[in-house]
Each structure stands twice: as structure tokens, then as C-alpha cells.
Please model this.
Amino acid sequence: MGKDVIIALDFSGAMETYEFLNRFKDEKPFVKIGMELFYSVGPEIVREIKKRGHRIFLDLKLHDIPNTVKKAMAALTRLNVDMVNLHAAGTAQMMRAGLEGLTRPDGTRPLLIAVTQLTSTSEERMQKELLIGVPINEVVVKYAENAKAAGLDGVVCSPLEAKIVKEACGVGFMTVTPGIRFADSDKGDQVRVTTPAMAREIGSDYIVVGRPITAAPDPVEAYRRCVSEFVD
Ligand code: C5P
Model:
């Protein structure tokens, strides 16, 4: 399992996405395709970016009954992506079904990671609206343990949660962490942020970086800076 930087392709159209990717001549970054791009353009965007030689994290956060998730995962695995995700809130049974659907006839499969609690959910809302009456960190750790027991490879979480997840589930259990900013850059709407170097220290396996790269004057240079702080 290699540490790597994943660029969040948070664009709404194919042309914009290809123009961005065309800037990269010497490297093929690992990229994340989320709901916006996937639902705007369709599966064709995944095939095209794969054809260009990029590894892809398809961030569609599946959450449905086990049988539906299994069949949806079987469809996604045929797109030959490298990483996909689902919501741990769907239960361990749903996660196991997802894993089964994802496994190809030859036994290979993309990495499967779980969303624990979205970082947009505050502890207060979780307790008042969802009636989950324990501290949010306990929920994150419990959902990560469920994901591990179901055979998943890791979780998406904030770098600050990565530490407690690793303590509970072991260093081999992957943490994929968004909310990354350079020490000297704008935070945007992210609240709890970490630099690539801090994420490396905490033990993140992959960092997901959007605007610090996509909105940089020189995205290739910003990507290289992330790689040099996080990986090298
Ligand atoms: O632009 P920025 O670096 O904030 O983008 C972060 C990416 O990670 C976005 O695609 C965002 O949706 C995603 N993400 C996040 N926090 C989570 C899960 C995903 O910021 N908890």
C-alpha cells in the first residue's frame, strides 16, 4: 500500500476536467471522481480518464439495502476503478455485500473504504437528529471497526480522526483523509484542516486534495508540492 496524493476532480463538465488533466505531462496523478462529475457526465468520464492512465477513486458513497449495493458495486467494478466507497451506516451486512459485488471473477477488486460520519455532521446534530447519544469519535471508531470486521480496506476520515482509527484498527487499516491545506493557503469552507506534512505524520495513507491544487495558479506545481510534503 503506497502513500499517495489524490486530486479531487470537483468539476461539473468533461471539457473542464480534461483541460485540467491535460496540464499534467510528466505524471499521472491518482484522481477522485465524485457525484457531481459522475452524475453530470456519466460513466463515460470514468472510462476516458482510466484510458488516459490515471488511477481513480470513485467517490459515490453507496448506501442502500445489501442486495442493491452488491449489484451496484458489481457494475462499478466493471469500470475498472481503483477505489470505491460506501456508508458504514448501512451496517456490516451491507458492507460485506458491497465487497462481494465488487470482487471480480478473477478474485481481484478495487479497494473498498467506508465513510464513517461525514465531517459536515456535527456532534450536536448527530445526537439531536440522529439520536446517536455518544461522542462522535466513538461513532467514528465503532464504524471503522465494523468496516474492518466486514473485510473493508479502510475509511475516509479527517486527519485528526485518522489517529484514533489507526489505534483501534491497526496501522494496516487505511485512512483516506480530505481537509488538506498548505500552511500558507486559504482554508475555504473547510474547518479542521491539516497540511500534507502533518497528515503524513499522523499516518494518513492517502490525502484527498481539491482546491489547493485545482484552484492554484499552477496546479502541476501545487500537486508536486503536495507530493513532496506528503510522500517523498
Ligand atoms: O477542495 P477541497 O480540498 O476542500 O476538497 C476536498 C474534497 O474531499 C472534496 O471533493 C470533498 O467533497 C471531499 N470530502 C471532504 N470531507 C469529507 C469527505 C469528502 O472534504 N469528509
